Amino acid sequence: MERANGYAIELKGLTRRFGSFTAVNTLSLQVKKGELFGFLGPNGAGKTTTINMLTTLLKPTDGNAIVAGYDLVNEDSLVRSRIGVVPQSFSLFEELTPLENLWYIGELYSMDNSTVRKRSEELLKIVTLYDKRNVPTGTFSGGMKQRMSVAAGLLHSPQILFMDEPTTGLDPQSRIALRELTEELHHSGMTIIYTTHDMEEADKLCERIAIMDHGKLIALGTSEELKSLQGARHTIRLELDRHASATLVSKLKALSGATSMRNDGPIVELSVPSLRSGLVHKISDLLTREGVDLKEIKFQEPTLEDVFIDLTKKELRD
Predict the structure, then answer these.
(1) CATH classification number, 7-227, choose in 3.40.50.720, 1.10.10.10, 3.40.50.12160, 3.40.50.300
(2) Measured in Å, how far apart are the chain's first and last C-alpha atoms?
């Protein structure tokens, strides 16, 4: 039975174990209808396992989810009818043309021929492949194949589109084209679940982002909210008219509340939790009292990558 509320997806303690290994550990979160929601995490964090469960490819060990209004465990066929998937690697028939591939998918969804024909032409125009509609997809570039995958995922007009690292391995032009297409779909009102390793991509595209590690949700929020988490640092870079003395460096650190700093001759970099109101004026006043001229001051906000590394640490993952 379909449940009506403001959420496209509700995860309730979703868990998946493989033997003694827990890949996803009691994951609970909600995705709003029409939201472009991102999953970030290092290799082995549990992102792909989570997506595989939400798209009914894997059964949860424990917990459950409501996807597009239906129970993931007990109404999996209804879930599948309302979701589309764009996988990381091309999974269509390379010997078939775009129109033939879409016709085949339409058959799987029991769509009538006239609907498939109309929808196929419409989608191939949207993904700018209409002029290649009768060319075998095996001849396509990586970017063209991914756009074809988007068309395939949208054929049956799903409520939710899952995109699993869709820009991996693409050239810069193809990445930009696919991002723009994703934004267009989002602006049309579609709910999109987007997994990526690209911090800049997530920062630009996603309204909210879930960061996972070791199978657990470790942070959730907008990009700006994540950047304001404890641990994220702003950098103040000062260029002075002379080498900074140890005394001056000590005073600057105390004044700014810096948690760390670097001094290289006339350059002083202060790492601070936040840019407090009036801090710049206080630094300027201190330098004036010390008889030091400030040649330049620069500020650098924390990036999403800074937050990600701070949360998940720097060790390499398999």
Answers:
(1) 3.40.50.300
(2) 41
- pLDDT tens per residue, range 87-132: 888 889 999 999 999 999 999 999 999 999 999 999 999 999 999 9
Confidence of residue 316 (pLDDT cuts 50, 70, 90): very low
CB atoms within 10 A of CB 50: 28
Q: Which of 146, 222, 212 is nearest to 177 (CA)?
A: 146
Q: Cα(129)–Cα(78) distance, rounded to whole angstroms?
A: 30
